[in-house]
Every structure is written in structure tokens, then in C-alpha cells.
Write a structure and sequence with these properties.
There is one protein chain. The chain is an alpha/beta fold and about 475 residues long. The protein has a single domain, classed as Amidase signature (AS) enzymes (Alpha-Beta Complex), CATH 3.90.1300. The chain contains 15 helices and 15 strands. The strands form three sheets. It has an eleven-stranded mixed β-sheet with strand order 1-3-2-6-8-7-14-15-11-9-10, sandwiched between helices. The protein has a two-stranded antiparallel sheet with strand order 4-5. α9 links the parallel β9 and β10.
């Protein structure tokens, strides 16, 4: 089932198909594909089918049940869905049943979406590939020997394979954009604060962690964002919803934009085929009437700053129970937490200086350009069980070199999205990243939608079948 969420919702609303029919087809597809892909770590089919039946009766009475009424939804297993386990991909939380929905999930359900299960994640979302000791390895539907990425790897595998048209994601360093790129989906990291977090025991400290969708189309992402954006009192960093609907905004014509493409940000290495596909995408943007300029601006590599701040964030979330769950944590995660808990004020100040320089460089860039483009990922998807590549095109890269283009924009809070550019000779998707000035999520979506229209790829899907 590869229909978009927008088309499904319209068909249900117009009584061309029933939500029960859609749910039965969804369940059948998940049961056929999940044993191979392991995209879903848990399912709630009986409850989902009951909700679809109740919705069918209400629709028959002419009730309007929301813009996503009847659309099946996957929820990332770092986020609460009432009555389901939020395991964080960690054995210590295997029985952690959520007593309520997250704000994001509650708003999606209010819009009519029906939760069908939780999608698999690496432990606490800590890696760019999806594997944990509780639920195992998640695989890419384009090639099951490869990873779908992480940490929203289960979400992207579920959407790309046609299990569900929508899935929730979160992104603190690329966790929406990485798997969306590797699986050929659309993924957007909204501006920080655009979608409220919570409820949560402790507020995030680093202002990097965002929520957002993984979808098949830009229109689906716009519909999703319209359903979940807006201030909530549980999250003091959340911001008011935009005055204009994103679903409306993406239909508005774009003026010619001044676009800068930076192939490396000054420090990254990129697989040759991935770079070739990015340059082909630049031609599409030019054919759309935009002015594209190749840039060599040097940005600081903030990898060390990002890594320490992420370790600090996870330490803050786990501090009160760390001693009791330590034996069940993966060694790499535990080492990162141990490192973070002894960070000095001087180290944190140095990281903040790096972050400030990065912010200033981007401010200077956006004073002259409307949009920044980069490759979404330096390489095609690597092995399903990891580790990330230690070299690219024969040259060694640091650990974060495999995700070199995503984490900088978590540190700065800019909205960023990935759109598919094509397939490598291995038959794996590559992508280009669209970054806009602060709070211009509308511009990211509008440019992505026009690129999607100019370079349609609906018929190019993974060959995997149940």
C-alpha cells in the first residue's frame, strides 16, 4: 500500500473506501513484511481495528473526524502512545507502559490518525542505524542487508515499504533526515519549538531535540505539521502555530530563490555517486527558475560539541535511575554518559563558542542566500548491523563523518528537510538537504514540494513484497 496519507484521508472522507478496509490492508502488509524488516517493535492491531470500526460508523453519520481520519500511524518508540510500551530500545524499559499519549501523538489522534504500533529505534536514539538488544536489527526495504538509518529507522522502513503512510520521528542530530534519506522518504526537521515536547519529567537542556514526520510526500508532511504545531504549556520552548496552514503554503507559487549549494561545509567527505546525484538535483532547481551557486564557505565541524551535548542530554534524562539500569545499557552509550557527567564548565563553554561561531556563519550566509543545500548524507546506506563507514572514497573519516551534514542544524535550530535525488548504482536512495533561515519551515516545504513536482519518483519504490 503506497498511497499517500493525503489521498487515503480524502478517499475515506469521500466514502470511496472505509477506514476498516484500510486498516485490514495495513495489518496484512505489516504481518507480511515486518518479519523481514523489523520496522515495528510492537503492534496494537485489535485496538486499531476497533477504532477504525467506530470511525466508520461515525463517518456514516456524516461526522467530520479530522484531516487524517482513518490514516494508519506508526509511533517512534522514544515517544509515548497510551497503553503501549515506551522502551527507548532498552531492555531496562521493556515493561514501561505509557499512561498517556505524548502531545504530538495526542494531536495526531485528534486529527483522526489511528496508531497501529511502535517503530523500532536504537537504544535511546543514540546511533544512526537501528539495532538494539530488546528488539533486534531493523533493515532497509531497498536492500535488507543495509540499514534504514537511525534513530527513526523503524519509522522510515515502515513508510518506505508501504506498511503505513505516516510515522512520527524525532531528530536531535539527524534522526529524521538520516533514515528518510536512506529509505527514500521525505523527512523534515522543523524549527526548534515548532512541535511541543512532553509531557516529560525533565525539560531538554540543549535546545537541539525536535519532533517531526517521516512521510511519502511533502503534502503529507504539511498535513501532519498542520495537525501538531502550536504552543503547549508543557513545553516552554514551544512556539505558536504559523498563521498560514502549511498544506496551503506549499501550493503557493515560489518566486525565484537564490540558493547556495555547499558540497562539504568545509570538512565533510562524500561518496562520489551521492555527490553526482546531488549535482543532478541542482540542475532541477535551476530548471525550476532558481539561481544556484556552488559555495565553499567554511563552517566549523561541531561534531565534538554535538556529541558531548547529546551525552549530557541523555545523562540528564536518565540520571535518577542510572545506577539501577547501568548493567542493561550498551557499552558505547554508557561510556558517552560517563563522559558527559564529568564535563567541566570550561568544556561546555568551549562547545557553546563553537556553536556560536556556527550560528554566526549561517547568519552571514542567509544574509545573501534564501536557501542552503547540502547532500543529505555523505554515503548510501551502510550495513544493517553497523558500524558506520570509517572511510569514504578511500579517505578516513571520524565517527560522525557518516552523518556530517545533519547535526550542525540541530545545534543552530534551522529547519531542514531531505528529498530524494535518485538511486545509486547499488539501487539505494540518496538525498539533498534543504535548509532555510530560522522559522522558515514554510520555505523548506514549499521548495521541497516544487522539487518533488519537478522530479516525480512515485513509481520508484523498494521491490520488497510480503
Amino acid at each position: 500500500m503506497h498511497k499517500s496519507a493525503s489521498n487515503l484521508a480524502a478517499s475515506i472522507r469521500n466514502r470511496k473506501v472505509s477506514p476498516v478496509e484500510i486498516m485490514l490492508e495495513t495489518i496484512q502488509r505489516i504481518e507480511g513484511l515486518n518479519p523481514v524488516l523489523n520496522a515495528f517493535s510492537q503492534t496494537c492491531f485489535d485496538r486499531a481495528l476497533d477504532e477504525a470500526k467506530a470511525m466508520e460508523k461515525r463517518l456514516a453519520k456524516g461526522e467530520y473526524l479530522g484531516p487524517l481520519a482513518g490514516v494508519p500511524l506508526g509511533v517512534k518508540d522514544l515517544e509515548n502512545a497510551e497503553g503501549m510500551v515506551t522502551s527507548f530500545g532498552c531492555t531496562a524499559f521493556r515493561n514501561n507502559v505509557a499512561g498517556q499519549d505524548s502531545i504530538q501523538v495526542a494531536r495526531l489522534k485528534k486529527a483522526g490518525a489511528i496508531v497501529v504500533g511502535k517503530t523500532n529505534v536504537p537504544e535511546f536514539g543514540f546511533t544512526g542505524f537501528t539495532k538494539n538488544r530488546l528488539y533486534g536489527v531493523t533493515r532497509n526495504p531497498w536492500n535488507t542487508e543495509r540499514t534504514p538509518g537511525g534513530s527513526s529507522g523503524g519509522a522510515a522502513a515502515a513508510v518506505a515499504s508501504g506498511m503505513v503512510p505516516l510515522a512520527t520521528g524525532s531528530d536531535a542530530g539527524g534522526s529524521i533526515r538520516i533514515p528518510a534519506c536512506y529509505c527514500g522518504c521525505f523527512g523534515v526537521k522543523p524549527s526548534f519549538g515548532r512541535i511541543p515536547h512532553g509531557p516529560q519529567e525533565i525539560l531538554f537542556m540543549t535546545r537541539t531535540w525536535t519532533l517531526g514526520p517521516i512521510t511519502r510526500t511533502v503534502a503529507d508532511a504539511a498535513l501532519y505539521l498542520d495537525s501538531v504545531c502550536g504552543y503547549h504549556s508543557s513545553d516552554p520552548d514551544s512556539i505558536p502555530a504559523p498563521e498560514l496552514s502549511y498544506a496551503v503554503a506549499i501550493k503557493k507559487p515560489l518566486k525565484a530563490l537564490k540558493i547556495g549549494f555547499n558540497p562539504t561545509l568545509g570538512y565533510a567527505r562524500v561518496q562520489a555517486e551521492v555527490m553526482d546525484l546531488a549535482h543532478k538535483a541542482l540542475k532541477v532547481f535551476e530548471e525550476m527558475g532558481h539561481k544556484v551557486e556552488i559555495r565553499d564557505d567554511l563552517f566549523p565541524d561541531a561534531g565534538d560539541a554535538w556529541s558531548d551535548l547529546m551525552g549530557l542530554e541523555i545523562y540528564g534524562q536518565l540520571k535518577d535511575r542510572l545506577d539501577s539500569i547501568r548493567p542493561e545499557l550498551g557499552r558505547t552509550l554508557a561510556a558517552s554518559i560517563d563522559h558527559a557527567r564529568v564535563l567541566t564548565a570550561e568544556a561546555l563553554l568551549a562547545h557553546q563558542r563553537t556553536r556560536s561561531v556556527l550560528q554566526k556563519r549561517l547568519a552571514d550566509f542567509f544574509s545573501s542566500f534564501d536557501i542552503l543545500l547540502t547532500p543529505s548524507m555523505p554515503t548510501e546506506a551502510f550495513g544493517a548491523k553497523g558500524p558506520p563507514p570509517a572511510e569514504i572514497e578511500g579517505a578516513p573519516v571520524p565517527l560522525l563523518g557518516a552523518v556530517a551534514f545533519t547535526y550542525p542544524f540541530n545545534l543552530t535550530g534551522h529547519p531542514a528537510a531531505t528529498v530524494r535525488t535518485g538511486l545509486t548504482s547499488s539501487g539505494l536512495p540518496a538525498g539533498i538537504q534543504i535548509i532555510a533561515p530560522h522559522y522558515r519551515d514554510d520555505l523548506v516545504l514549499r521548495l521541497a514540494a516544487s522539487y518533488e513536482e519537478a522530479s516525480p519518483r512515485d513509481g520508484i519504490r523498494p521491490a520488497i513484497s510480503a
